[in-house]
Amino acid sequence: MVVDTRNVVFFTVFFFVVHYLLIRWREKIRNSTPIHVVTVSEMAAIITFVGSCIYLLLYFGTTLVHHTHFSDDEEAEETKNHASIGCKFDVLLTHAEKKEATTGEDEEVIQAVVSGKTPSYLLESKLGDCKRAVFIRRVALERITGKSLEGLPLDGFDYESILGQCCEMPVGYVQIPVGIAGPLLLDGMEFSVPMATTEGCLVASTNRGCKAIYVSGGATSVLLKDGMTRAPIVRFGTAKRAADLKFFLEEPLNFQNLASVFDRSSRFAKLQKIQCAIAGRNLYIRFTCSTGDAMGMNMVSKGVENVLEYLQANFPDMDVIGISGNYCSDKKPAAVNWIEGRGKSVVCEAIIKEDVVKKVLKTTVASLVELNMLKNLTGSAMAGALGGFNAHASNIVSAVFLATGQDPAQNIESSHCITMMEAVNGGRDLHVSVTMPSIEVGTVGGGTQLASQSACLNLLGVKGANKEWAGSNARQLAKVVAAAVLAGELSLMSAIAAGQLVKSHMKYNRSNKDISAKF
Fold it and tell me: Which NCBIfam families does the annotation name (predicted)?
């Protein structure tokens, strides 16, 4: 019997549409998307499915009603065709059953997590599929808490990239918009500065500062120091023994041996100095070392462990209390960082022309100088500020840190800054500078390897490790951070001096959108 071409076409369309709809419905269930919300392609598939069903029903119905007698050959051919159709239906059902089985497997794991039989933190290793682990953890969390995670994205992120290094037990990711300030003219080079923030006005204000710097000839920066620190705490039976180790560590003849032991931790680790402080029988040892293009906390910690093991041979009564004794000092405002520096110490300056101050910044040189003295210097002193002699350095530091994959908690010491403004050239122009002694940044490791953050580093031309000059990418990034802070300080201080701060925030930092109905 000759096969009707129309039947073959409709059977093919029918199976394809069913397969497509099954896949789409499964994805919606996984992503918690309402099934009744359909796209144009899904609507077309549904219409095609209905049309195919009608045609197939008419075809088989007509065959049953108008049954004709076939010859033996024709009957054999027809039986063969129906058997082929049956096989196709079997294949389709088998595929659908597999889809249900996969969903069933997910449900079984979800129940195990909810009941506590399977720890949530083991999902990635047990399933071998990071995204599936995130989905299951997410659903389990919603059931346990009774709270919806709708609005927290699941798709569009590479969960493999954070496994074992950036985040544990993920359930999604937070979206932060990234704006660009610039061009920022620094040391003769132009930079477009990425800033991840949810604060309206911040990028626009920094961008205005960049413009003022650009048309005035640009900013100049100097790297003063480059060394990450770690300070373990050790204890002895007496203060005298603690002092003995202090003198041993500070003896210049011993430094070379200690440096060789320390530097085994990495080919980029280079011990620079050791500084000690005693509190009774407790000794705090602050190691400072270069770390290449990495921020370097892990590198310096490993080097410290090497030295402590070495010292144990000569000072067997030394009791190591902790690898960090807060004399480092990490993620806390501390005078030791403000005075001695930590990470990259940078000073950045620019001379803003009188006409630029008036036309771009909408204020005067005298007003800025007076405001800076009374606000950033005197006001901060009245508040007992520690490293906070500025208008809002942490705003810019945080935004650039988030965009480029830095540790946001290190914004604390990285935002230590003193802003200076002085009238120069007979009082006509403005000399503005920021001095930041502890900018802690890196261009390798941690969040810098994530796709979005890596793209922002690439925009600045400092992505990854510098192959020619180790550490130069991280140092350049620190200079860009300082220059961006300079731009931000210049613009905000001008807005305050001109009485525009409240007006601009009311315009750009307030939303009239009512979101209460969504919750």
Answer: HMG_CoA_R_NADP
